[in-house]
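pls design
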């Protein structure tokens, strides 16, 4: 099904996997709808500038559960449109009580800048507030979620936040990496981030077997699996030069950068 929408860009990855992207915003945020035979997963719900449920309702009639890669506004913007929300225990408090280290003024400034018109008529950055509420399900890492002939494995990959997760779809070989890995600058300089944990999490995903494609939460849609070989080299480089820690600066590599 081809969907043309004034805000979201809908791009099929395969017959049962769709990227829902927000290219009109500077963050170029991606959410992903994965469909099985019995239910579907939406990995993140985007910025909340417009209603992502408008898109998912056109794509599937299956019940949808939301998997939160981590709790920041650009990942939880439309969480309130869905009944079932999974979040890792490390970020559950952020979802319920607010995002640590990010005042609402900074969130509104970031969400409201550098938007390409047309801007949805319902969006007002002056009153924007990320979703806040109790999750329906708590993840601990290691879970396998069965969608019906499609099984997703949850990897706890802290660093960008305490409860950041990645999702591995073993049958297709897709690895969904949230803000841990994408073609851009990976941030680990906030007080709420852990450079040490982030590097260990990069090492974790670099050794996930049989990955065919890597899908991050921002910018370029999809990276070749050989980026994981690059990740292995990056981890070794950072460790050997004792660069893992706050205030060591920006470190650039061929596909991505890391800022501590």
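designed seq:
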């Amino acid at each position: 099904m081809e969907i043309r929408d004034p805000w979201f860009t809908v791009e099929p990855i395969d017959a049962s996997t769709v990227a829902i992207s927000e290219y009109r915003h500077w963050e170029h945020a991606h959410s992903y709808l994965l469909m099985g035979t019995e239910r579907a997963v939406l990995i993140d719900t985007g910025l909340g500038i417009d209603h992502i449920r408008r898109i998912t309702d056109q794509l599937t009639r299956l019940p949808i559960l939301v998997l939160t890669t981590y709790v920041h506004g650009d990942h939880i913007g439309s969480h309130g449109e869905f009944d079932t929300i999974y979040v890792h225990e490390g970020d559950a408090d952020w979802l319920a009580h607010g995002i640590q280290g990010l005042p609402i003024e900074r969130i509104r400034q970031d969400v409201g800048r550098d938007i390409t018109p047309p801007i949805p008529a319902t969006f007002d950055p002056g009153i924007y507030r990320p979703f806040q509420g109790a999750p329906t399900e708590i993840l601990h890492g290691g879970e396998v979620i069965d969608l019906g002939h499609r099984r997703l494995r949850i990897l706890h990959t802290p660093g960008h936040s305490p409860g950041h997760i990645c999702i591995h779809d073993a049958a297709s070989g897709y690895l969904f990496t949230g803000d841990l890995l994408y073609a851009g600058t990976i941030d680990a300089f906030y007080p709420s981030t852990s450079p040490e944990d982030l590097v260990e999490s990069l090492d974790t995903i670099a050794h996930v077997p049989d990955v065919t494609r890597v899908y991050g939460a921002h910018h370029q849609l999809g990276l070749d699996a050989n980026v994981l070989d690059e990740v292995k080299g990056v981890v070794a480089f950072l460790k050997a030069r004792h660069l893992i820690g706050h205030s060591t600066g920006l470190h650039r590599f061929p596909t991505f950068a890391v800022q501590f």
